[in-house]
Amino acid sequence: MTEKHDIHQIVADRADGGGFAVAVVLKAEGSTPRSAGTKAIVEADGTILGTIGGGIVEAEAQRRAVEAIRTQRPLVFDFGLEGDSARQPVPICGGRMRVLVDPTASRCRSSYAAAARARRRRERGVLLTIVRGTGALATAVEHRPEGSLAQDLPRPSSSSEVPAVQPLSMEVLRAGRSALVRNQPEWLVLEGGERMEILVEPLVPQPLLVIAGGGHVGQAVAAQASAVGFDILVIDDRPEFSRALTLPEGASARCGAIGEELASLPLGDDAYVVIVTRGHEKDAEALAACLHRPAAYLGMIGSRRKAALMRKDFLESGRATAEELDRVYAPIGLEIGAVTVPEIATSIVAQLISVRRGKTAPRWAVWK
To answer: Potential cystine with 92: which of 83, 130, 218, 316 (Cβ 3.0-4.6 Å)?
Structure first.
């Protein structure tokens, strides 16, 4: 999930049984406001935590959830966003959404808890949301770690949960592996015997953003990046700039020599590094610790002149090749005319999003 609130953990923590419903987008085709796997919690009075897209489709989910909570009966509805006039109330995005409203989700609290725990531990897996039947529906939710998709596992022993797909069919196993490879949900319909719809949702860790420098820019980047779905780690050698009080909820911090701390991190291809320390010497220390690592993004703050001089020094000293330096976004951020600290942070986070979604991003200057 990329939302501020982890719906899985909230469901796991709820002790009021059927006093709420979980709305889940099972399928999304064409242009829709949210994708499959998006979840929200609807209370008995219709209030909602999270969003499945807003507008009329969300209002419909809220309306249906109130009745579903009263009857304790799950339901599925389809919603078309295929209006043909901007003057009509029917949405004109052009897509279709299939939504589950489940007031019995609390019976699968342990599966939701497992999904939330996997997210905190940055562990990969899938979450299966199963809808059985065609009239009176029964639902189940099951968490499966990545390793279990190579073979089937025995049925969970908890008697409080509705049995899920057991044993898992080859179709579900293949869909789970595909969902993880593509980082996209899969939707299956199994017709053998009792009809089943299964949403196979990949649980993939959010990208890790390592911010070298916990000053004003670092703090602003942390706040904005956290809001758009990055896990945050801030590194600074000053205790006052590596405290939890200066960081968004859920972020972590390390205090120590910046280069040494960066070198000790197991940076992978889902890691993003933003270098915004208090001076060029610390920036160079951080850059040297990351240049030879497989991070998805490496950016360094500073002027064109600073970037050019640092590049020259790294090449002449043999600390890096031209190819390695070409990976670095320096000066950092998109060229949007940013002046203030929040604006600079916005330009940096926009570049992070561009790389995350498209694997590359525009540069406002080439540091050569």
So the answer is: 83
Chain Cα centroid distance, residue 157:
30
* 89 DSSP assignment: S
Residue with tokens 């910046």: 258
**Taken in order 334, 336, 340, 342, is the CA torsion positive or negative?**
negative
The domains of the chain are located at 7-203, 208-358
Q: Which of 289, 302, 296 is nearest to 333 (CA)?
A: 302
Q: Does residue 103 have a cis bond before it (omega within 30 degrees)?
A: no
Contact of 58 with 46, CB cutoff 8 Å: no
DSSP class of 316: H
- Please list, in sequence order, all residues whose beta carbon lies within 8 angstroms of the beta carbon of residue 194, skipping any fewer than 6 positions away: 132, 133
**Which residue in the block uniquely carries the two structure tokens 């540091």?**
367
Taking domain 208-358, whether its CATH number is 3.30.470.20 is answered by no
Strand partners, 129: 141, 199
Q: What element of type H or E holds 324?
A: helix 322-325
**Cβ(274)–Cβ(350) under 8 Å?**
no
Q: Reply yes or no: is the peptide bond before residue 167 cis, omega within 30 of 0.
A: yes
pTM score: 0.77
* Alpha-carbon distances of 135 from 58, 132, 196, rounded to whole Å: 23, 9, 12
